[in-house]
Amino acid sequence: MTSDVSFTIKRNDQVGRYAVAGRDLKPGDLILTDLPFAYGPKADSPPLCLGCFAPVDCDTVCTKCSWPICSLECESLGAHYENECEVFAKAGVKFQPVEDPTDVSLQYECVTPLRVLLAKERDPTRWEEEVEVMEAHNDLRKTKPIWYFNQINIVDYLRGPCKLDRFAEDLIHTVCGILEINSFEARTPSGYLIRCLYPKFSTFSHDCVSNIHHTIDPGNYQVTVRATIDIPENSELFCSYTYSLWPTLVRRRFLKESKYFECKCARCQDKTELGTHLGTLKCSKCDNGVILSTDPLSDCCEWKCTHCEFKTSAVAVSKVYDVVQAEIDTIEMVSGAEGIERREAIYRKYRSVFHPKSAYMTMLRTALTQLYGRASGYTIDDLPDLLQERKVELCYQLLEVLDVVEPGLSRIRGITLYELHAPLIILARSQYSAGEIDKDQFKRKMEEARDILRQSVEILKNEVPSSHEGQLGVVAKEAYDNLQENFDILIETA
Question: What is the pLDDT of residues 280-291, one digit of tens each?
Answer without folding.
Answer: 999 999 989 999
